[in-house]
Amino acid sequence: MAVLAYSLGKREINQHFTIKNAKLISLAAVVLLLFFHTALRYYGGEDSCEWLLSRGRFLGENVWQPYGCMMHKYKSNEAKTCLSKKRVVFAGDSRIRQLFYSFVKIIEPERAEEGNKFISVGKKKFKLLKISPFTLQEASARPDVLILGAATWSIKLHSGSSETLQQYKSNLTAIASHLVRMAEQAEVYWVLQDPVNEGMLSESRKMITNEQLDLYNDAAREVLNSSKYGGRSRVKLLAAARQAALETIINSDDGLHLPEGTRNVGALLLMNSLCNKLVRPIDGSCCQTISPPNLFQKLSACLFLGAAVVFVVLHVLGYNRHRRPVHTDAESLEEKKPTAASAPLGPKAPFQALCRMGIIMLYFYLCDRADVFMKEQKFYTHSKFFIPLVYILVLGVFYSESSKEAKLLNREQTDEWKGWMQLVILIYHISGASAFVPVYMHVRVLVAAYLFQTGYGHFSFFWLKGDFGLYRVCQVLFRLNFLVMVLCIVMDRPYQFYYFVPLVTFWFVIIYATMAMWPQVLQKRTNSSGIWHLGVLVKLLGLLLFICFLAFSQSFFESVLSVWPISKLFELNGSIHEWWFRWKLDRFAVIHGMVFAFLYLVLQKRQVLSEGKGEALFPGKISNLLLFLSVVSFITYSIWASSCKTKTECNEMHPFISVVQILAFILIRNIPGYARSVYSSFFSWFGKISLELFICQYHIWLAADTKGILVLIPGNPTLNILVSTFIFVCVAHEVSLITNDLAQVVIPKDSMALLRKLGAAGVVSLILLLLSRGDQLTPGT
C-alpha cells in the first residue's frame, strides 16, 4: 500500500492516476464502507455485546480477540469499582466453578481456588451455587448477575441417553420463563458447554462426548431463543468461551476441565460484558454506549456546516476564483508552495477548505467516536514489525534518485529522513512493538531525531535569515498546531494527548526566544568579527543550564506548569506527569541539533567541508576514520539497546546517548559523496506530510485513541490494512494542503491585521477555557 500511495506521484502514470483521483477513490471507498457497516448492523441485528459473547479468535497464546470490538484487561481496582454494588451468583457444575474462581481472581489475584464459596467485594457478595444434575437452588437474595450452565452431570449420570436430553430440555423450558423475568432487572448469562478432549477422559466420563455436548447446547439455544421470548430472549448466551476452548481443550489435564488461560478468557468476557458500560475503558469498545456530543463538538459541527452553506452560496453567486492556480510537480505530484508574488486567495477558498476539513473531521468522528466501524486489539509478533519494515526499506532504496544539491542535510535528504522515520513509527504503532524493549529504544531515537531536526532546522533559519517577525512565528505555530487544535475539539481530547505537537511547539518557542533575545547573533554579524561566535556559545550554554535546572526537580517543574491557564497545554487526565516524562526523555535532543547546526554552518562558511557531488565530506583519511567510528558507534548503540531489560532502566540513559546514533547516522549518510548525491523520492514524499501522518494515525488508522486498530474490512486483516492505509495517507495529504491554504488566510502579512486576528483568537480561546473550566467545576459532572 505504501508503494501504491507513492506511485501516485510517478511521472509515468500521472495522466491516469493522480493524487486527486486517489482522494476521490478513497472518498468513494469511505461512503461504500459506511453503507456496508450500517447495513451489517441493521440487518445483522447484532451489537458489540453480542459480538463479544458470541465469537472471536486467538491472536496469540491466551490473547483473545472478540469479533469487531476490543476487550479490556481489567485490573483489580477497576473490577472492584464496577462490582462493588452488585451481587453476583454462579450456578452450575465443576466447570462453572472454574469460571467462578477465574472471575474472582480478576478482583483478588492472590485468592486461592480452594476456599470459601462466598466472596465479598465491598458490601456485595459473589456466591457459587451447585446444579446437580439440574436443580437451581434459590439464593437468599435476588442477584444482580446470574451466570449458570450445566450438562455434563446429566450426561454422565444417565450415560448420554436420549430420554435425559429430553428431560434436560423440559427442565430448562420450565425455568426459562423465570430466567427471562429475572433478566428484566438483572443480567443473566447461560454458559454454553465447552468441548472435551475425548481421548483424555477417564473411564467414568467416556460418555461425555462432543456430540452429546453439541446436542445439549442446541437444546439450550432452542429454548432460550424460543419465539415466545421474541426470538431472542434477554438471557445472554456465552458462546465465545466455547469457541476459545475448541482451540485449547487439547491442553486440558483431564480432558474435561479447561486450561487456566482459557478459563481466564471466559472470565474476561464476562467482566467486559458487565463492566464496560460503567468503567468505560478506552481500550474496551465491546458493550460500550456512545457518549453524546458535548457543547464544543456541537459548535464545531455548526461551524463546518456554516462554512458549507457560505461556500455553496458563493459558488452559486459565481465567485469561482477560490484559489490561486497551483502547478503540480511532475515527479512527486506535490502541489508546489505558492510564491509570495502569487495572486491572493479568492473569497471562496477558506470556506472550501473548511468544507473539506469538515468532511475529514466527520470521518475522524465516525472512526473513533461513533459506533460505526469495528476495532481490534493490537498484538505484537516479530513478523508483524520486521516484515513490513524490510518491505518499505527495499522500496525506499528502489526509488532512489539524484538529488538537486549535495549539501549536508539538504532539503531532499531531511524530507527523506523524516519520511522513513515516520513509516517506521507507523509500523511500530500498528504492530504494538512497544512491548518489545529493543524496538522501543530504537524508536525513541527516531523521536529524538525529529526533535534534533527541529533544533537544527530552526537554528539554521534564524542564523541565516534573521527573520524574527511575528508573521514567521505565527505561520510556524499555525502549521504545527492547526490539525491538533481541531482534533482537540472534535475528538474531545486534551492538547497534551497529541504529545509530539506540544513538544515541537514548546521547543520552537524556546529556540525562538534563545535566538531572538539580545544580543541577536546572526551569521552576517559574525562575518565582521569572530568574537560573536562566543555570543552564540554563551546562549547555547544558558539554554543548557535552563534545561538542566528544569530537569533537576520534578516537583518544581510541575508546580511551574500547573498554573491555570497554561496548565491546559500540559495536562493529561488532570496531571502533567505525562508531559514531564515526554519532555525529560528527549530534553537534550533539540540543543544537540542547535549545536550541530552551529558547528556545521561555521565549518561551511570557512569552507572546511567539501560538498560537491561525488566528493567526500572531509579529506580522505579523516572521512575514513569518521566513517569507521560512526559505524562502530551505531552498532554499539544498537547492541546496548537490544540488551535493555526494562524501559525504565534504559530511559534513564536515553537523553544522554541518543545523540550518538543520530550523529552516527548523519555522518554515515553524508560523508560518502555518492550517498549524499542521491535520495529516496519514496521516503521524501512521505516526509513532506510526516506531521499529518503522525497525528492522523491516532484516529483513522489506529483506533480507540491508538490503543487498537481500525477495522474497515472485517475478517481479512491484510485487506483491511491495505484499504485503511490508502484512505489514511490520502487524508493526511489533504489535511496538509488544507493547512497550507488556511495558513495564508488566517495569518496575514499585514502586521495590524495579524494583531487584530491574534487578539480575537485570544478572546475566543479565553472564553473556551472558561467554559471548559466551568464544566469541570459544575457539581455532578
From TrEMBL:
A Gene Ontology biological process term: carbohydrate metabolic process
Q: Which keywords has UniProt assigned to this entry?
A: Glycoprotein, Membrane, Transferase, Transmembrane, Transmembrane helix
- Which InterPro entries does the record match to this protein? Cas1_AcylTrans_dom, SGNH_hydro_sf
Q: Does the keyword Transmembrane apply?
A: yes
**Which Gene Ontology molecular-function terms are recorded?**
N-acetylneuraminate 9-O-acetyltransferase activity
- Residues of the Cas1p 10 TM acyl transferase domain: 280-758
One family name in Pfam for this protein: Cas1_AcylT
Q: Which residues cross the membrane?
A: 295-317, 385-402, 423-441, 447-464, 476-492, 498-518, 530-552, 585-603, 624-641, 653-671, 721-742, 754-772
Supply one GO CC term from the record.
Golgi membrane
Location of the protein in the cell: Membrane
What is the membrane topology listed in the Swiss-Prot or TrEMBL record?
Multi-pass membrane protein
| PANTHER family noted in UniProt | N-ACETYLNEURAMINATE 9-O-ACETYLTRANSFERASE
Record's protein name: CAS1 domain containing 1
